[in-house]
Request: fold
Amino acid sequence: MHIPDGYLSPQTCAAMYAAGAPFWYVAAKKVKKQLTTKTVPLLSVFAAFSFVIMMFNAPVPGGTSAHAVGGTLMAVVLGPWAAAIGISATVLIQAIFFGDGGILAFGANCFNMAVVLPFVGYFIYRSIAGHAPFDSPRQWIGAAVGGYAGINAAALAAAVEFGLQPLLFHTASGTPLYCPYGLTHTIPAMMFAHLTVAGFAEAAVSGGVVLFLHKSMPDVLMQAPAGKVTA
Amino acid sequence: MKEIKKLWIGIGLLALLSPIGLLATGDAWGEWGAAQFKQMIGFIPQGLKRFAGLWHAPLADYTVSGTADSTGYIISAIAGILLVALLTWILGKVLVHRKN
Reply:
């Protein structure tokens, strides 16, 4: 889901930076209020976890691959605003040092993976977990279902960004200038990879780690601000 | 928190296991190199060609020149973890001042 440079027109990239900017602004303010010097180390832990988990590519039938992001997990533990900051930091390091995702496309990649993913994931998690106690199965089930939904929502956003390119940006004769595939191609392709593989990977990561934290490190969840402060 | 230390150890173990991620050899959908479009659709879209090479990442595609793929992948994982930790630490220093 890391859109490289060249796939989106510079205009699209600018629009996606503009779409992400208000979220970064609010996220910075929210994180200032919600995190403490004690919980910032958890932001580093979950952002680093997200980085390494994204390296575990899983094969997708048809010859491509996909991976989990760990964004819903971060939203469940630290809240969606902290997740927006944490995933953005991870995506920035990936773009600059590893060429995974573009520099021009950084805004779009953050919008998809650091905004759409954790917010959709968190919304679904909260709908399922409600005010259930932190050791209730509804917590990890909510995190798993939220993870599945969140990564698929992000994939859909990326598919729309890809698929609009040939429609909006082509030469006078109609030859595409950027991503050459239209919506009827990008949406099925992206959704197939994420509905069949990446969604389950994200669900396993979110649900599995939340369950692990409940059983083995309840302190981490008790300290975390997500349960105490609403989004 | 004692737990934080354990979580970092877990992340370190994941870094060592990361070459498992190399078993899936296919690119992610929509992450092909510009040259691959020649095979896929017969030409490289003009704008795509122009911007694809905009930035040359030092550890492009999680490889380290002169090392085997799996070694480079592990080095990349460790480097990435440290860089992400550093960046979020800096962000935390700048944004968060509340002790409790």
